Amino acid sequence: MPAETSPDGDVDIMSRLARIKEILEETLDVEDLTVTPELSAADVDEWDSLNHIRFIVAIEDEYMMKFTTKEIAGMRNIGDLMATIDAKAGR
């Protein structure tokens, strides 16, 4: 599901956050996560290192991009992930 764009060309942050929430819940096999830009792996018991890799791969597939090891290491929370997606997409 691609991100939606508003008439002024800005990507709809809430739409992207909702899609990332769906991917994270599916990856972790949990329901009703409260996903905010501040959410990190430390906040969710099921978000271990293996699930982190699965989540990153699912995000790469969704947004049709690949992250470098350096980019992944710099992602401390969902906001950092979204910023990295934006940077790679040229937003």
Describe the structure in your own words.
Helices cover 53% and strands 0% of the residues. The two termini are 18 Å apart. The radius of gyration is 13 Å and the shape is globular. The chain has helices at 13-28, 49-63, 69-73, 78-89. It is built from four helices and no strands. The chain has 91 residues and is mainly α. It has one domain: Orthogonal Bundle (Non-ribosomal Peptide Synthetase Peptidyl Carrier Protein, Chain A), CATH 1.10.1200.
CATH fold group: Non-ribosomal Peptide Synthetase Peptidyl Carrier Protein, Chain A
Shape: globular
Tell me the Rg in angstroms. 13 Å
Number of strands: 0
Helix content: 40-55%
Structure classification: mainly alpha
Terminal CA distance: 18 Å
Which stretches are low in confidence, meaning pLDDT under 50 for 5 or more residues running? 1-10
How large is the count of helical segments? 4
CATH class: Mainly Alpha
Report the major sheet.
Answer: none
Strand content: under 5%
Overall average residue pLDDT: 89
Helix-strand sequence: HHHH
Write the layout of secondary structure elements.
Blueprint: H1 13-28, H2 49-63, H3 69-73, H4 78-89
Helix pairs in contact: 1-2
Short description:
The protein is mainly alpha-helical and 91 residues long. The protein has helices at 13-28, 49-63, 69-73, 78-89.
Give the key terms:
91 residues; mainly alpha; Non-ribosomal Peptide Synthetase Peptidyl Carrier Protein, Chain A; 4 helices; 53% helix; 0% strand; disordered N terminus
